[in-house]
From TrEMBL:
Record's GO cellular component terms: membrane
CDD domains with a match to the protein in the record: MPP_PhoD
PANTHER family from the UniProt entry: MEMBRANE PROTEIN, PUTATIVE-RELATED (PTHR46689), WW DOMAIN PROTEIN (AFU_ORTHOLOGUE AFUA_6G06520) (PTHR46689:SF2)
Annotated InterPro entries: Metallo-depent_PP-like (IPR029052), PhoD-like_MPP (IPR018946), PhoD-like_sf (IPR038607), PhoD_2-like (IPR043904)
Superkingdom, natural source: Bacteria
Pfam families xref list: PhoD_2
Organism: Bordetella bronchiseptica 253
This protein's name: PhoD-like phosphatase domain-containing protein
Residue ranges annotated for the PhoD-like phosphatase domain, each copy included: 147-290, 411-501
Amino acid sequence: MAKEAYTVGPVLSFRGVGGARQWRVSALIGVPRTAKAPALRVEGRACAAPVVLHQTARETFLRYDLSCDMQARERKVEFGPRGGPAWHFTVPAKGAAPRLAYVSCNGFSDPSGMRKLVRPENAVWADLLCNHDRDLRPADYLLDKEQLWHETRTHDEGLQRFHLLLMGGDQIYFDSIWEDIAALKQWVGLARAQQLEFKVSQALEDEIEAYYFGLYSRRWLPPSRAPWAGAQPSLDAADAMARVPTVMMWDDHDIFDGWGSYSPAMQRCELFQTLFRHARRAFWVFQMQHALADLPPLQAIARANVLPQDPQYEGIAWSRQLKRDRLALPLLDGQPGFTSAYRLGPLALVAADLRTERSRTQILGTQAWTALQGWLHGLKGNRPASATGGCRHLIFMSSVPVAHPKLSLAEGLLDTFGQDHVLDSNADDLKDHWSHDDHEGERKRLLETLMQVANEKLLRVSIASGDVHVAAWGNAYRRDIPPTSNWAQIQQFTSSAVVHPSLLGVAERLFLFMLNGTAAQAQPIDVNLSVEMMLFPGHNRYVMPARNWLAFELDAGKAGKLWASWRCETETGFSNHLQAVQPAQG
């Protein structure tokens, strides 16, 4: 089947482990509305008829069930339509920890910024894919010594390196909506009072809806892209999402730049709420891979004695809402957002939704905190030390870094120069950070929650983040606990961006200088708790200004380390940077 028969996809999505042994995977495929749904096969058997997630005037979006049983050994499985093309993904062994890749920022706010790149736009995706699957490498591809480590253990066994692809935010950039829709471009030039009073006509709302649902196809499977059945792979995001089941969580650009960090009046205005509503609906279909009919609207909690600056929504009983969907994501019950959580053998993974309830002074609402803490405390742990089958490592996906330099001076500088035009609105980005003064209380709550679980369950917690267009390593720790009790240390691994340029311009280099200067200072949270940036592994600075991707791989055995390894783009290739998270000690 030619690429042109698909308008988007296939995009693989991980749905969690079903029962004790089912590796649940779905595939999103878009086709022209008048086209017949393709018949897919997986491991030689016919897939069930697809679920229709949504239809627009031009397209039908379908979800296929590619779930496979986990066996005693991991294996590579094939799927696709009869007669090709065919794609492959790897299913881990029953009870084993999956190998994970992590990326963020798959796009750009300003196309002119891409001219700063020395190497092609998709060079980092190409590197990830060549590390993932030997069959995708060009004939002249050369391995470095670090890659050889995985060659004998994975590729020589006929396998792919990664079982899951974690996508930590900005999977798509909707900032272009302000230029591409004429009424929105005019709105930008209005006085603030006029912006707040602006009424959205039905015609404009229809145009906004069509834009959100149409851009995914154009960005995730560009019309200019080579056909799927071509002789050579394109080595881009589409190739990656078709070969590694994804776990996705949105950030601001999946809505539009800075969502959640504008003034309360602006956040509540009719236009912003309309944009958010349709971004949420499109996110549900494309990134969550759920039927649009199953998405309930957000219901505001009306309380007369509560300040209106922070959105408060009724919780959603997701298990009841999605009870008819056998491929429903493991969304936490009782939250209004999309936080999902997974048990993966000795690993646990939380993909936290930090956008649904965000404001300048709030990251997560009360019900989201309750749902998150309830799931974490329900994890099976390793106390007493003789316990078996417990979670040994928890990876917490936070779209914005928890450990990051405090940059109040930089925020003021960027505001002075004009936050809408300097550094892709980095002033808004700084207001997003957990380290911002307005979010410091919630950062303390998060770290205390994670450390309490680490202590109770005797496990290690690591945080994976993106957003900031650099690679970085940080650490949160309790000063009143000896280092030998390493559950009280939480390492932060930041990987950004897979496409967006890093800090390259003159103003950005000034910003980078400020980042490194501020990063050298520890951040006391209270008398016992501190956050500190660490020198980046194999680098003499705290942040690495390069496009990059990140891998998480757990050694086998109860005493196994969790390895975090970055691949950072250079002018001529890629460099390797490794760090290890030791098993928990009490």
